[in-house]
Specification:
The structure holds two protein chains of two kinds. Chain A is α/β, with parallel strands linked by helices. Chain A is built from eight helices and 14 strands. The longest helix of chain A is centred in the N-terminal third of the chain and has 12 residues. Classes of the chains: A alpha/beta, B alpha/beta. Chain A: InterPro entries: CoA_trans_fam_I, NagB/RpiA_transferase-like.
Chain lengths: ~250, ~290
């Protein structure tokens, strides 16, 4: 039986398996692990970077230096790729709402927030230009809220309301949490439960979510990583177990 | 004797003397990377006030916010990378001490600088549509394509600057300048968006020295974009200035701890590091490094 972190890594890898030859842009540790896992298994055509300014030809372990460089991707060229569209970003989210809007800007009123976070960063541009997914390491009603305080990342409903130029390339693909996997194809462009991780019940996910989820009659269990994937995660990509800092080992169910 | 282009070398104080209350100042670099920190520290020591600061923000924004220098801030994010949230910026936002704020998508920011650099009132862009960037900045308008598609896009307003401050690795005395690290960031755009641009560098070399050991493509700034050149060794500290030096993580942690604590702790940090001139700062940093070793 694999750990919860390994299940999450495989679910993230699955989010990138059909992307073809595009720039996979993971923000955070588990997304980086999942993207590299996808590149070593289901989608070797993925283009990956060191998170700074270099495209890497190989698939190095997390935070390793010294891989062969296959390209240059300084920030100014990242913005070109965003507009070009051949990119799939997986961002974090301090809040995600029922309509797949995301907030990383601030909590509370924008004019004088209760808690200032990063600011909108590239979320507005990402979500109207290229495929976007989210990773939530601690699924709770504080993250999954009815309505985000500030819309940084734009969900499909708001994109449609903003007109064809906003909706044309809006593509919120997957939301992966430590409990489950979602997309935004529920009724009225809402969050729909795609699968629950092994050992997690649908009711548990409902209780940890601050709005009514679209739940199909039959909810499958998120797949277990294959033996090959488990070896790649444990021996190659993350031998130090950094993933357990985001999703603790104890979360794995017997 | 043949005439050459003029010598633009200046001191830090001479740059600060060119700045006025109420100016719009663009600060180059990115987050905690290659920021013109020696010039930012000099603004802190000055009596300048009511500044509009335009920055992909790091500690430059945090320090100026804590000192009450900012009347208006144009930003897309403020981060120290290894410390994700900038404590002085957080404090200023949560206490409401920055009177005017403009929060953009980080790509809109580049487009705004491009518009200013091209002397255009705006440039169209998709970023911002549907997001609260347009809700919280209701003065940002959209523009409709005059062609058959009739797409309605964001008309990103030009981010025109009175002054740009940037830090690079090397320059000659005329203002030709190279970055030697992996990313130019947007320092050329900052300079072109500004009426006047001042570049601080690790080292001033002769012109031939700029391309001795690095490709010509690294010459980011031409002297026609630059009004003044200041030699400030370690002048990006505590941000990165690859390959001359990397971020001073220990110092950044001390900064972040002081900024997140009470006023007393901040006053002590400020007294130790920020109240003397640049030479005093560098001496205090050297002493700090020895303590930590």
């Amino acid at each position: 039986m694999s750990t919860r972190a390994d299940v999450c890594a495989a679910a993230i890898a699955d989010a990138f398996q059909d992307d073809g030859e595009i720039f996979a842009s993971p923000m955070g540790l588990l997304p980086m692990l999942g993207v590299r896992l996808a590149k070593l298994t289901s989608n070797p055509d993925l283009v990956i970077s060191d998170g700074e300014s270099l495209f890497l030809a190989g698939v190095p372990p997390l935070f390793a230096k010294g891989d062969v460089v296959e390209g240059w991707i300084p920030f100014r060229k990242v913005f070109d790729v965003v507009a070009y569209g051949k990119r799939h970003v997986m961002m974090g989210a301090t809040q995600v709402d029922r309509h797949g809007n995301q907030n990383i800007s601030a909590i509370g009123d924008w004019a004088q927030p209760k808690r200032q976070l990063l600011g909108s960063r590239g979320a507005p541009g990402n979500t109207v230009n290229n495929r976007t997914s989210y990773w939530v390491p601690k699924h709770s009603p504080r993250v999954f809220v009815e309505r985000v305080d500030i819309v940084s990342g734009v969900g499909p409903k708001l994109a449609k309301e903003a007109g064809p130029a906003a909706a044309r390339y809006n593509d919120i693909h997957r939301i992966v949490s430590n409990l489950a996997v979602f997309d935004v194809t529920g009724a009225g462009d809402t969050l729909r439960l795609l699968s629950v991780h092994p050992g997690v019940s649908v009711d548990e996910v409902r209780e940890a979510t601050g709005f009514e989820l679209d739940v199909p009659a039959d909810v499958p269990t998120t797949r277990e990583p294959t033996t090959e994937e488990q070896v790649l995660i444990k021996e190659v990509l993350d031998p130090k177990g950094l993933r357990f800092k985001e999703v603790p080992q104890e979360e794995a169910q017997p | 004797m043949t005439k050459g282009p003029r010598d633009k070398r200046m001191s830090i104080d001479e740059v600060i003397a060119e700045l006025k209350d109420g100016m719009t100042i663009g600060i180059g670099g990115w987050g905690p990377r290659r920021k013109p920190m020696a010039l930012v520290r000099a603004i802190l020591r000055s009596d300048l006030e009511d500044l509009t600061i335009v920055s992909w923000g790091g500690a430059d924004v945090g320090l100026l916010a804590r000192a009450g220098k900012i009347k208006k801030l144009v930003y897309a994010f403020v981060s120290l990378d290894s410390v994700p949230l900038e404590p002085n910026f957080q404090k200023a936002r949560q206490e409401g001490t920055i009177p005017e704020l403009v929060e953009l998508d980080e790509g809109m920011f580049q487009t705004g600088l491009r518009a200013a650099a091209q002397r255009l009132p705006f440039l169209p862009m998709r970023a911002g549509l549907g997001s609260d960037v347009l809700v919280n900045q209701p003065w940002i308008k959209t523009v409709t394509s005059p062609y058959d598609d009739q797409e309605e896009l964001v008309a990103v307003p030009a981010l025109h600057l009175d002054v740009a401050l940037v830090h690079l690795n090397r320059a000659d005395q005329h203002g030709n300048a190279t970055y030697l690290g992996p990313d130019p960031y947007f320092d050329d755009l900052f300079c072109m968006a500004a009426d006047r641009a001042y570049v601080s560098v690790e080292q001033v070399t002769d012109t031939a020295g700029l391309t001795v050991d690095t490709p010509v493509q690294r010459l980011l700034l031409s002297r026609m974009m630059v009004s003044g050149v200041v030699e400030t060794p370690n002048g990006a500290h505590f941000t990165t200035c690859t390959p001359d030096y990397e971020r001073d993580e220990k110092f950044q942690r001390a900064y972040a701890a002081a900024a997140s604590g009470g006023d007393e702790g901040w006053a002590a940090f400020s007294a130790r590091f920020l109240e003397g001139d640049e030479a005093a700062y560098q001496a205090a940093v050297a002493a700090f490094r020895e303590e930590q070793a």
